[in-house]
Amino acid sequence: MVQQIDPHPGEILMDPACGTGGFLTCAMRHMRDNYVKRPEDEALMQASRRFKYVAVAGPDRQ
């Protein structure tokens, strides 16, 4: 499913049936595997408030 959606860093991804967060976890892994190429990219992804608090959203997170 995540490959079909192909989320990119900076996009908002919401899972209305969040449950255990498996889909969102896979989406984060997909973004890291496909768009983080250098140690600086990883550091930026980890430090980004937008990534941590906006890009990962379930209905109870809003």
Structure description:
By secondary structure, this protein is mainly α. The protein has four helices and two strands; from the N terminus they run H-E-H-H-H-E. A two-stranded parallel ribbon has the order 1-2. 8% of the residues are buried.
Low-pLDDT stretches are: none
Strand-residue proportion? 5-15%
Helical stretch tally: 4
- Structural class category: mainly alpha
Q: How many strands appear in the DSSP assignment?
A: 2
Strand order, largest beta sheet: 1-2
Average pLDDT works out at 76
In short:
The protein has 62 residues and is mainly alpha-helical. It has one domain.
Key attributes of the depicted protein:
single chain; 62 residues; mainly alpha; two-stranded parallel sheet; 2 strands; globular
Task: Summarize the helices and strands and which ones pair or pack.
Elements: H1 2-5, E1 13-14, H2 22-35, H3 39-47, H4 49-55, E2 56-57
Parallel strand pairs: 1-2
Protein name: N-6 DNA Methylase
Domain DNA methylase adenine-specific: 1-38
Keywords: Methyltransferase, Transferase
